[in-house]
């Protein structure tokens, strides 16, 4: 793109070149013409002069005219500057010539006119070439033409004369061209500075833009000079400032503007969106200096009418603020599943951005997590925000009775929002509590909006928005926003209510299914802890189950998940473990039966669509024998128990790995055994104790090892130390912990005999047992024990197999009589017929023993019977076996 200055320069240069060329051509042509004219004149003058010279006629009439005329002709030629002076007679014979070879030759040429006595000038091709020739007649005294004189000048000579002038012409032309080019350059440079190097298109666009700024732009534009004069003003600025038609060129102070506006326009300071009053308009004025963009320091001012924009922007800002408030409410309300905390979050998020004071009242059933009634007459204040300690409103926890006809009644009974813009003039609001209403008005509160908290079509409570002091009263638009805010909060409150209800039900169910206390037994000193998860009730459980033979079973289990289903599943598994343990099964057999039960329950649940399957439950079953000190353990996907020895060493008992319950793998469960020194602590736990989001399982097990190591502690102290060391501030999973310290039964309280398989061997063993009871001070139950042993040993000899072994165990509260044999057949009580000779022995055993049963081992079975001893076991009246059997046979009640 060429600039205007460059195009003007090129145009001027072309014009100068053309003019100079034309001038040179004209000068050359004129010089040639002048030279030819001069040549005509010189040749004619030379010819006539020589024709009228003295002595010419005499020489012509002589015998040898050439000899006389040739020297004269050469002298005259040289003097006149012509190329030749040719004299010839009328017959055309040449007498003189500048070329002697032409003398005597006949001349052919247009000389007829000269022969007639008239001189002439012609240009023709002669002996010298193309020449300008003038001829003059030579007359005698009588006037008769006797000869002709011709004076030629060659055109070549004329051209050489012209060529000698060409350097002068060209030099003059070059000088003129240089002078003209320099002038054009100066003019272009000046023009370039004035047009800032712009091209024609840009100049045209600038003019169009300038015209648009002046007439089409709907924003006022002013340019003010350094002296405060108005240099440029567009139509919009004239309209906004009401300027006169001759405003341009005048000082801004003389235009009748507002004094503040005139001072700004005339000053050197800049401005950004300064609001100025111009008549009834609010103008936003921006002012900047043009000094970075021009040589002159001027200011450009833009004006924008913000009268309507200010109102619209205010409305937009209010809408934007309320949208932001709704967004904040969505993120802050309902952060916890707690009804009261959710109500507090609602009150806090609305103060002070929407209301000066906010109170929340809920129906009592909602606070308890129950389904609210269709209609209620009382509300309880759950949250307050925005009040000073001396506020006159009902405090948190206060019960508010609903008075018919008040805004509160309309909100609860009709689920309708009510706005009271002027509380001082609202008799309906004052009727709720006139004295408190007066105190509230004295506190500066003047406007109220009551909005029901409604979810799923049910009113949960009310939220009251109060404004005081200089805050504007509530209007219908505020009511719509308040309903939107209350609607979002009501969803959070209802979710918290339903969660509270489910959590309460789950915790109630779990408490009813968990052990209410530990059973009385002598084999282990037990302490426990259970901590429900913050997120809800889980499926962890533990149990301590006394077993016959001075043994105790410890159980810990975990059902994946939280809530009612997990708690109910935990209860089902715990009951099943109790039932299976009553059969005195080994740990691996018990877990096998439990796995089959869980699989069966899963199939039933899937068929009836009652809920998700319980696959994923784990269980650890441990049996401790206080006589031998041995521990037998089996696990179904549960973490291994820890053993803290009296010397401070800690190890993890690792049963063979088995899958969780209910997977249906068909793999058998296996057991592991360990002999515990007396005083060792056996620690059973669930994964919530050692594993969480911030700690992996291996790190948790090491932390448990560290907490259990060290000096010997009681089980209660061990529980406290472990819980304090391993649990985070907020547990995401429930935790069950069971710590049992091993005790050994005194060997002096254990008596054993081997019995031969001979009926005659019953008496000696029975007598030895009676003596042992006397040594233990148990003479009061010796009769019943003797009868029990007699029946059990007799049955073992008759129906069992060798080896037959008898053992008495005396604990603090129980005497246990055990008879073992090598047979796996199990006796059972039956109704003996009148003709039967046997079948009544086990009935007698059941009558004299508090409990009896059978347990199996790899080498046979053991039938045991337990009798209560000690201060708490009062002796009963003894009846003879005959009396007992007669009452049984007579159908008496037992």
UniProtKB/TrEMBL annotation:
Its EC number is 3.1.3.16. It comes from the Bacteria. Residues 208-273 form the PAS domain. GO terms for cellular component: plasma membrane. Its main location: membrane. SMART domains: GAF, PAS, PP2C_SIG. This is protein-serine/threonine phosphatase. Keywords: ATP-binding, Cell membrane, Hydrolase, Kinase, Magnesium, Manganese, Membrane, Metal-binding, Nucleotide-binding, Phosphoprotein, Protein phosphatase, Transferase, Transmembrane, Transmembrane helix. Residues 521-742 form the PPM-type phosphatase domain.
């Amino acid at each position: 793109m060429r600039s205007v200055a460059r195009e003007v320069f090129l145009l001027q240069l072309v014009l100068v070149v053309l003019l100079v060329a034309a001038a040179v051509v004209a000068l050359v042509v004129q010089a040639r013409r002048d030279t030819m004219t001069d040549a005509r004149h010189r040749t004619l003058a030379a010819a006539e002069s020589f024709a009228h010279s003295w002595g010419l006629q005499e020489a012509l009439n002589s015998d040898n005219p050439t000899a006389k005329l040739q020297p004269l002709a050469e002298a005259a030629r040289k003097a006149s500057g012509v190329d030749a002076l040719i004299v010839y007679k009328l017959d055309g014979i040449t007498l003189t010539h500048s070329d002697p070879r032409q003398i005597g030759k006949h001349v052919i040429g247009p000389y007829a006119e000269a022969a007639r006595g008239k001189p002439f000038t012609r240009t023709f091709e002669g002996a010298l070439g193309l020449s300008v020739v003038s001829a003059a007649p030579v007359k005698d005294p009588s006037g008769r033409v006797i000869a002709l004189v011709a004076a030629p000048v060659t055109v070549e000579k004329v051209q050489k004369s012209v060529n000698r002038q060409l350097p002068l012409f060209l030099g003059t032309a070059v000088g003129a061209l240089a002078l003209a080019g320099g002038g054009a350059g100066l003019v272009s440079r000046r023009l370039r500075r004035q047009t800032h190097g712009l091209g024609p298109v840009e100049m045209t666009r600038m003019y169009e833009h300038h015209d648009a700024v002046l007439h089409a732009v709907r924003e006022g534009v002013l340019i003010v000079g350094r002296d405060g004069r108005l240099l440029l003003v567009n139509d919009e600025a004239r309209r906004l400032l009401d300027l006169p038609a001759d405003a341009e060129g005048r000082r801004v102070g003389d235009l009748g503007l507002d004094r503040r506006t005139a001072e700004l326009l005339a000053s050197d300071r800049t401005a950004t969106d300064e609001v100025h009053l111009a008549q009834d308009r609010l103008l936003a004025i921006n002012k900047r200096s043009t000094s970075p963009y021009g040589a002159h320091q001027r200011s450009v001012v833009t004006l924008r009418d913000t009268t309507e924009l200010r109102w619209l922007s205010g409305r937009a800002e209010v809408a934007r603020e309320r949208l932001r408030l709704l967004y904040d409410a969505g993120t802050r309300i309902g952060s916890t599943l707690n009804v009261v905390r959710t109500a507090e979050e609602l009150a806090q998020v609305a103060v002070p951005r929407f209301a000066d004071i906010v109170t929340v009242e809920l129906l009592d059933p909602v606070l308890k997590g129950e389904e609210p009634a269709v209609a209620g007459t009382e509300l309880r204040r759950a949250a307050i925000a925005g009040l000073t300690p001396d506020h006159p409103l009902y405090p948190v926890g206060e019960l508010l009775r609903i008075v018919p006809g008040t805004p509160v009644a309309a909100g609860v009974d009709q689920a309708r929002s009510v706005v009271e813009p002027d509380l001082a003039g609202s008799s309906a609001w004052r009727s709720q509590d006139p004295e408190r209403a007066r105190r509230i008005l004295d506190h500066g509160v003047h406007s109220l909006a009551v909005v029901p908290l409604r979810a799923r079509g049910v009113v949960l409570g009310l939220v009251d928005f109060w404004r005081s002091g200089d805050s504007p009263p509530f209007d219908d638009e505020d009511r719509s926003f308040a309903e939107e805010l209350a609607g979002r909060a009501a969803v959070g409150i209802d979710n918290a209510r339903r969660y509270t209800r489910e959590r309460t039900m789950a915790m109630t169910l779990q408490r009813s299914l968990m052990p209410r206390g530990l059973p009385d037994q002598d084999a282990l000193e037990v302490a426990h802890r259970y901590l429900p998860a913050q997120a809800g009730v889980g499926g962890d459980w533990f149990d301590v189950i006394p077993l016959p033979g001075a043994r105790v079973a410890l159980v810990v289990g975990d059902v994946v998940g939280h809530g009612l289903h997990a708690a109910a599943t935990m209860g089902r598994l715990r009951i099943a473990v109790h039932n299976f343990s009553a059969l005195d099964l080994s740990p691996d057999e018990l877990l096998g039966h439990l796995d089959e039960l869980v699989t069966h329950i899963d199939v039933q649940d899937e068929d009836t669509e009652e809920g998700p399957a319980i696959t994923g439950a784990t269980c650890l079953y441990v049996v401790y024998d206080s006589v031998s000190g041995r521990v037998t353990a089996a696990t179904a996907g549960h973490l291994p128990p820890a053993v803290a020895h009296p010397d401070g060493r800690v190890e993890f008992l690792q049963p063979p790995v088995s899958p969780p319950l209910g997977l249906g793998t068909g793999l058998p469960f296996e057991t592991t055994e360990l002999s515990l020194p007396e005083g060792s602590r056996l620690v059973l736990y669930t994964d919530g104790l050692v594993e969480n989001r911030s700690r992996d399982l291996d790190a948790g097990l090491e932390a448990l090892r560290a907490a259990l190591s060290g000096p010997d502690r009681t089980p209660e102290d061990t529980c406290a130390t472990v819980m304090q060391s391993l649990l985070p501030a907020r547990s995401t999973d429930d935790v069950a912990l069971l710590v049992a310290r091993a005790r050994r039964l005194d060997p002096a309280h254990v008596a054993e005999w081997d019995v031969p398989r001979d009926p005659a061997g019953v008496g000696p063993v029975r007598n030895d047992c009676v003596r042992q009871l006397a040594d233990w001070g148990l003479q009061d139950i010796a009769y019943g024990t003797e009868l029990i042993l007699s029946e059990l040993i007799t049955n073992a000899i008759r129906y069992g197999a060798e080896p037959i072994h008898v053992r008495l165990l005396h604990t603090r509260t129980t005497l246990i009589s055990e008879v073992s044999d090598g047979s796996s057949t199990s006796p059972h009580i039956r109704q003996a017929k009148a003709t039967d000779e046997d079948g009544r022995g086990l009935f007698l055993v059941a009558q004299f023993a508090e409990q009896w049963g059978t347990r199996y081992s790899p080498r046979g079975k053991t039938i045991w019977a337990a009798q209560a001893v000690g201060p708490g076991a009062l002796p009963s009246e003894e009846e003879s076996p005959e009396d007992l059997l007669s009452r049984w046979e007579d159908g008496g009640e037992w």
